[in-house]
Amino acid sequence: MKEPNQVDEYVGVRLRRLRRLTGYSQTKLGDLLGITFQQIQKYEKGVNRISASRLQHIARIFQVPVSHFFEGAPAASTPAADSAPEAPSPKVADLLATRDGVRLAKAFASIRSLKTRRRIVALTEAMGNAEEASDSEQDAGAGTGPGRD
């Protein structure tokens, strides 16, 4: 079986992220496009290439420019084209599968100021690091102390 093209995979990843951010199911998007949810799955995996006219239709549905699907895509003539697009970590994928994760992503996406975005990222990273450190300290203290064997 032929391997998916890296750009097709990248466009599929962008489609999946956009679909999830807007809360559309594969079935709902398929219905809007007049195709099956299985075809949406194939697009999202990069197995089937999305035609220009269909990509334009998808862009209209999500109210984004067609170029949105190619922003950051690997160039076909560079070594980067041989590498797969960066997939979100399992933690990120799990977060985006939750209602709060989608709310957070939508709220963050609505912030236009790069400076504000960077501050929010720094704050969130600091909070996450502090929580991990606290968890590590609690784990290190578990099993020790009075009354514990």
What does this structure look like?
This protein is an all-alpha fold. The chain has a domain at about 5-85: lambda repressor-like DNA-binding domains (434 Repressor (Amino-terminal Domain), Orthogonal Bundle). Helices cover about 60% and strands about 0% of the residues. It contains seven helices and no strands. It has helices spanning about 5-20, 25-35, 35-45, 50-60, 90-95, 100-110, 115-140. Helix 1 crosses helix 3 (about 35-45) and helix 2 packs across helix 3 (about 35-45). The longest helix has 28 residues, at about 115-140. It starts with 5 loop residues before the first helix and ends in an 8-residue tail after the last helix.
- Any idea what the CATH architecture of the domain at 6-85 is? Orthogonal Bundle
> Might you state the CATH topology name of the domain at 6-85?
434 Repressor (Amino-terminal Domain)
Please tally the helical runs, counting DSSP H or I stretches of 4 or more residues. Answer: 7
CATH class (first level) name of the domain at 6-85: Mainly Alpha
Helical fraction equals 55-70%
The whole-number mean of residue pLDDT values reads 83
| CATH homologous superfamily placement of the domain at 6-85 | lambda repressor-like DNA-binding domains
Give the termini separation.
57 Å
Low-confidence regions: 77-84
Number of distinct beta strands: 0
| Sheet with the most strands, sense and barrel status | none
Class inferred from helices and paired strands? mainly alpha
Global geometry: elongated
Order of helices and strands: HHHHHHH
% residues in beta strands:
under 5%
Instruction: Give the radius of gyration.
Output: 20 Å
